[in-house]
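User: tokens in, sequence out, please.
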């Protein structure tokens, strides 16, 4: 593992230990009150969900046109993280919505597109695991579809009616809310990088082990 991995892991753990303190000290939102503080974990996890889908898609494009096994490993690792962080977003979102707006779920554009993107990542993993020969190329095609869905998820709130706030809300957060939000986002981003590197390394070791087995036959 890279030399930076251990200190980065320690830093990530410390950031997640500190983030609840920052969130607890942040002021209450005037209309939603305490429940709004779910957003400090919900929104970063949702952003990482979308970032992971982009990483998966870009790696898949590079694999399709370059054929490098490392790009394929990055795509597979990123797809698993799409499922992980997408699940976080899809669980924390309804918890927030039920208390703030009185509904667990609405089939609005952003929610539906987010669920579809998450299901695409699940389909990618199932195809790669059980699809047999050629599943790498088929999975890459699914990853491209998932990546194409990302900008649609992001801008949808600006064009369709939804319970989600528009994309202009985060840049206008007051400093007392902005600091815990961006700190939490940095913690989630670092966690994503660490998990991605660890998962890719696992696939590299698996490939090395397979090569040893083949050499012994």
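Assistant: Sequence out:
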């Amino acid at each position: 593992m890279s030399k930076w991995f251990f200190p980065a892991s320690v830093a990530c753990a410390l950031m997640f230990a500190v983030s609840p303190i920052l969130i607890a000290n942040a002021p209450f939102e005037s209309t939603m009150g305490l429940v709004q503080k779910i957003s400090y974990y919900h929104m970063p996890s949702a952003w990482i969900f979308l970032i992971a889908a982009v990483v998966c898609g870009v790696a898949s494009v590079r694999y399709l046109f370059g054929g490098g096994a490392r790009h394929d490993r990055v795509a597979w690792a990123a797809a698993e993280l799409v499922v992980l962080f997408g699940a976080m977003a899809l669980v924390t979102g309804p918890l927030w919505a039920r208390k703030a707006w009185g509904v667990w779920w609405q089939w609005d554009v952003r929610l539906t597109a987010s669920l579809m993107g998450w299901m695409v990542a699940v389909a990618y993993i199932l195809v790669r695991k059980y699809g047999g020969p050629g599943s790498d190329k088929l999975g890459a095609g699914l990853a491209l579809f998932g990546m194409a869905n990302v900008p649609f998820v992001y801008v949808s709130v600006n064009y369709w009616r939804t319970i989600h706030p528009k994309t202009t809300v985060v840049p206008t957060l007051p400093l007392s809310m902005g600091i815990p939000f961006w700190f939490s986002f940095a913690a989630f981003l670092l966690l994503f990088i660490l998990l991605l590197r660890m998962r890719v390394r696992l696939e590299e070791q698996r490939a090395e082990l397979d090569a040893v087995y083949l050499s012994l036959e």
